[in-house]
Known about the structure:
The structure holds 2 protein chains of 2 kinds. By secondary structure, chain A is mainly alpha-helical. Chain A has a single domain, classed as Cytochrome C Oxidase, Chain A (Up-down Bundle), CATH 1.20.210.10. Chain A has 15 helices and no strands. Chain A is globular and about 60 Å long. Chain B has 2 domains: 2-63; 81-173, Immunoglobulin-like (Sandwich). Chain B is built from 2 helices and 9 strands, in the order ααβββββββββ. Chain B has helices at residues 2-26, 34-63, and strands spanning 81-88, 91-94, 98-100, 104-111, 116-121, 127-133, 139-144, 149-155, 167-173. In chain B, the strands form 2 sheets. In chain B, strands 3-9-8-5-6 form a 5-stranded mixed sheet, with no helix packed on it. A 4-stranded mixed sheet of chain B has the order 2-1-4-7, with no helix packed on it. At the A-B interface, helix 2, helix 8, helix 10, helix 11 and helix 12 of A face helix 1, helix 2, strand 5, strand 6 and strand 7 of B.
Amino acid sequence: MTTTTIRARERKSENNQIVTYLIVGGAIIFVMMIFGILMLLAQGGALDVSPAAFYQFLTIHGTGMIGAAALAAASVMWYFLREYVDLSKKIFIANLVLFLIGVVMVIVGVFSFEYASSWTFLYPLPALSGGAWGTIGALLYLFGMLILGVGFLLLFIDTGRAIIKKYGSLGKGLGWDVISGKKSEEDAPPKAVIASTMVTIVNVTALLAGATVLIMNIINVINPAFTFDPLLAKNLTYAFGHIFANSIIYMAVIAVYEILPRYANRPWKANKVFLIAWTMSTVFTLLIYTHHMLMDSVMPTWMLIMGQALSYANGLPVLIVTAYGALMIVYRSGIKWDVASGLIFISMFGWVVGVVPAIIDATIVVNHVMHNTKWVPGHFHMYMALGACAMLFGFMYFLAKEDSAIKPNLLDKIGLIGFTLGVLSLSGSFLVSGALSTPRRWATHIPEWMGPALFGAVAGVLMTISLAIFIIHFIRYVRERDYVPRDEEGKKIA
Amino acid sequence: MIQTVAWVVSLIFMTLIAVVFGVVALKSQGRRDYEPIKKKWYKARSFYAITLVIVMLAVTIYTLRDLPYNQPVYSEGQEPTVVDVEALQFGWDISQTEFKVGEPIEFDVTSKDVNHGFGIYDEDMNLLAQTQAMPEYTNTVYITFDEPGTYEILCLEYCGLAHHIMTATIEVTE
C-alpha cells in the first residue's frame, strides 16, 4: 500500500467526520427554524401556543441555533486548518459525541421537564422559575450545556496545541512576527491558520467564562443557600454568549477565504493589513460583550463607553479588510457563479449588512430605546443567517462539488434565491418590529405588533424550504460520494 | 424619535451596501488582470478606511456627549422626584405612580428575585427609556414626561413564564 493511498483513505475518513458534523448541524438548524416560525406565528396571533411552550421553544431555538451553527462552523475550520497543522481526529470525534450527549440532555430538560430560561440562563433564573420548572430540568439543561462546552473546549485546546506546535506560539499564528517586521509578508501564516488562532484564543476564553457561570448556577440550583454576584454572573454569561456566537462567523469565514479565490482564480494572501485586522478582531471580540449590558447603569461607565466605541471599531476589520477583499477578488474576475460561490458571496453581504443595525444598536443613546426590542434579533439574524449560515451552506455545496459528481440543479438555485430573500424579509420584519418598540422574547403581542411577526413567519417558511433544498442536495452528495472514481490522492477523476 | 432615526440611517447604509455588492456581482465577468485592480482599489481603500474611521469617531464623540446614565441638568434648584421600583416575578412595586408633566423623575430600579427590564412606554407604545432591574443592585433611569397620559411599564428582560404580562401603568397629568 502506497503512502498516497493511505493518505487518501485518511482524507476520506476525515471527510466522513466533516460530513457528520455538517449533517447534524444542518438538521438541527432546520428544526430550530421550525420553532422560530412557530414562535412568530404565536406572536402574530395565528397560532395558539401556551406561554410555557413558547418559552420552551425560545430556549431551544436560541441554544440550538448557536450550538448547531458552532458545530458546523467548527467542521469548516477543521477541514481547512488540517491542511496546515496536525489536528487530533480523536478530539474531533470526542467533541461530536459530547455535543450529541449535551443536546439530548438539553432537549430532555426543556421538553420533558419544561425548563425555559432562554439561552441566557441569567442567574438566578435557573433556580427561581416561579414554579415553572424544577431542579431536574434546570440541571439537565445546565449540565448539558456544560458537557457541550467541554467538547468545544477540548477542540479549541487541540487547535491551539497544533498551531503552537507548528508555528511556535499563538502570537505567531496571528502573524505578529510579520506585523513586527521580523518575517516578510510572504511568510505570513495561511488565512485559515490566522482565523483559527483568533477563534482558539477567544473561544477558550468564552468557554471558560461559560463553564464558570454554568457551574455557579448548577451549585445554586442544587443548594439555593449558595449565592453569588448577579452582576458578575451577567458579565460571565454575556462574555460567553457573545464571544461564542460571534466565533461562528470567524470560523465559517475561513470558507470564504478558501473558496472564493478558487472560484475567482485569484490569490488572496495575508498581508500586514490583514494580520492587523485579525488581531483587532481578536481583541475587540473579547472586550465588546459589554454592549449587551449598556442598560446596566451600575456597570463602570468606562466599560459601557468601551462597549460602544469598540463595537464600532469591531466593524472595521470586516468592512475594510474581509468584505473589501472579497469584493476585489470577485470584481472583473470572470468568476464562475454556482450555488456554492453564490452563497459564499451572499454571505459576505449578509455579514456586512448586518453590521449596520448592530453598530447602531451598540450606540448607548439608541440602545436606551432599542435594547431587548426585536431590533436585536433583526441584526443578528442578518449576520448569523445570511452571513454565517450562508457560509456554512456554501461550504456544503463546495464540499459536494469537490468530493462527488453531484451537480446543483435549478431547485438549488431557487433555494439560494429563496434563502436570501427569506433572511432579508425575516430580518427586515424584526427591524421594523424593533423600530415599533416591540419587545423581544414576548409570548404574546398586541395587535399593532402582530403584522411584522406574521410577515416574519412567512419569510421563515421560505428560509426553511430553502434549507430543505440545501440539505437534500447534501444528502444526495453523501449517498453518491462513494461511487465517484478517484485518484490516489483521493481527488475525484473528472 | 430615536427609533425612526435608527431605522432610516440603517436603511440608507444597508441599501448602499446592497448597491455595492450588486454592482460588483454585475461586474464580476469579463476577466481582467488582477494587479492593476489591486493597485487601484488598495489606494481607494486607504481613502475609504480613513473616511470610515473619521465618521465613526465623529459619531462616537457626538453620541457619547449625553449619556442616559447621568442625571440630566435641571433648572436651578430643581431636584428630581426619586421613585423606588422593585421588580418581582411577575409584577412591579413602584413607590409612586402619579406624576406631573415636566416633573423630573429618577427611577431607582432593583429586583427582589431574578433579572427584569424596566421599560417605559408611551400611549402609542413607543419605548421612551429603560434600565435593567437586577437583584442586589440598583440601576437608575431619568425621565421627564412631556405629555399627560397613561404610560405603561413593560418587563424587557426575560424573567419566566409570565414575563409578557409583567406590566404596570403610571399616570401623568398636567
